[in-house]
């Protein structure tokens, strides 16, 4: 390996200890190796930062080990007024030789690879987007908790003999919540009270719903229902607080927000989650294929002896991947869109799961191009492609009918 850096530092990070190796020396000569260990407590990490500043080491590399690298990255990022290169590297790209592996050897191996310029850092967005990530990812966990709490309430009502949720499209809509509040207060419900609870079209099924509510709750059951329903309302209120904070942060990126919201199926919530994961500057990715691979929307390569075998997509970014799949599912229901038609054609050949991943990849490629060029989504640009595909399908149908002996005039 030919060295290209005179000073480099490798960090082997664990939960309780950080092993740092400083490799410093003139190019073409063996570097001087100095290895130090630090704990992951704040005072010890300050000592690590002071050592980096003292050694004037502007090139640092570390493994992307869970979340343990994040506080160290945050502490070293402002060093030298931001004029420092910090690489967070995938551990698979720099595995050491098995049988000769220790923490000190790992740190030295990282420093050696970094000094030779053989490491490629993972994509780390600016601090503004990392802070937005905290909110968008937390919102996702809050929504998951709300869904779990709704299922818990529904399960309790079902076990208590109240099966009205089968007759309401949304058991936690206005009508369902009115019924639950009435049961918390009185333990049972009459026809007159049910008529006051039901809203709009649900009143047409009042007799069926009344039969499903033919039961009563004891004092303990009413108290327990009050407890779990109050927790649901608290979670929903907390979600609104988080969403208000997201809205406040995402307005700082109004241009990118308007570009993403021009895609059918993407609202402010989805756009905020996407922007938080990939940022607005696409210069970190050479092309759309790189960002799709980083997101985990590209199939792997598995070829041996000239035979190409099935390969699953890589892990990538689960938050971005899941959001794009949700958007793709929304788009698939809008039959008038080009992307929707493209999804259904893929689904017929590959199945629903592969079609969803394919549409998510296509969406990410579109988003990459839109953010890079600053041009909004335009459905008209797909009109020519749609007409071409329709003509091809019509021509294939005519050929099949002619083979069967029917006389059909070719279209166009």
From TrEMBL:
Domain named Transposase IS116/IS110/IS902 C-terminal: which ranges?
258-332
Question: Where does the Transposase IS110-like N-terminal domain lie?
Answer: 10-159
Q: What are the transmembrane regions?
A: none
UniProt organism field? Pseudoflavonifractor intestinihominis
Under which name does UniProt file this protein?
A: IS110 family transposase
Q: What is the lineage of its organism?
A: Bacteria, Bacillati, Bacillota, Clostridia, Eubacteriales
